[in-house]
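Notes on consecutive records. When two proteins share a document, each keeps its own sequence and its own token line. Never mix them. Below: protein one.
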Amino acid sequence: MTFYFIAAIIVLLLVWLFFWPSGRRRTKAVPIRQLRPHLEFLLRIAKEGSFLIFQDQKSSRFVQFRKASDGKEGDFLALDFPDAPWSRCYFEGVARALKQYGVRYAFAPTESLEIPRFLQVERIATVDEAQEIAELIFRELGLEEDAKVDVVLQVTGCQPLAGSGRH
């Protein structure tokens, strides 16, 4: 009986490790300079359609990244910054800062009157690039370099790690 109990625990643990369920996770008080591990998880492990929101602890200001893939060149991160009531006074400044930094972006219109468009940065290939973009936007939003944000990770599932033997 003990053997079956231990075997069942091992099987459940392996299933949990290889098939991370969809869900939401929140981490509080992460310094803006230390977002890399969260971005790394999103890019390397989370499935397409998962996203990260880095939200200022003292206001409604946030930066959002999502996981995307084109099927040819692989996975990448994308940034979606809304032209919403809370962000309207920052929107053009964020666009200017990204342009000055050499980041290509596009405006994507919506059918919403409240949020008429998004500033979108596609094909963010590295975690370092995503970290730099996040820091740049937070500076434009008026956050100090030592500010802390809450991290919300919404995953649609996880991919097997390279070399895990699963296909």
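Protein two starts on the next line and is unrelated to protein one.
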Amino acid sequence: MPVSLGRKVHLLLRFVLALLTASAYGMEDSPSLSQYVQSVSPIQNGRPRITYARRQVEDGSLVVGFIEPDSTVETIESQAVVFVALERPDGRVIEIAKSAPFAYYTASGRLLVTDISISSSRRFSVQFNHLGACTSGFEIYRFALVAKLWRVAGRDGNQFHCNPADESSGDTRSEWSGNFVTGRVLAKEYRQNKLVSSTSTQRAFPIFPLSSFVAFEERHGPR
């Protein structure tokens, strides 16, 4: 079946766009994922601990990763990095966005990244679990591409408190959820697994770019 003129023009435009994209990103020099991780890793001593998530997109796989120090060799000066990259079908990687290295101390493994979830090509989240006798809980940072900028879009915090009357860990807890894009904040308090207070407020948050993300800062909600 002959190809129509419109179809030929469409294919030509896609070919030209592919060439321009390759030129803009320096595809001929694009590293593999392992090479890319090595190039952006802030870990100086020992092997880093890396948590990945992938999601299939039109041009390959969207890869979100968190690079942190191994708890056996970390120091109080250890750092971590969050990155977003496109892994092409041929294995080459194009960086989309990343944070600057930020201070990150796992306290001998009592702080862990337990999940990275990519909900779409424009949204992902990173979950941190805190382990401790009276300081356990978890935090989920939500990231989104908004107006062509990857930014911290929200944070959900769940902090457990010690209470002798609790039947299980987490019965007495504080929950906080902030949407940094819409400004909506939800806060709840539980005692012995019973809701004792719940508030919904509106707050103006500044823009938090992914490039300047630092985990566990008070500007992202109560600590």
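For the record: The two ends are 66 Å apart (CA to CA).
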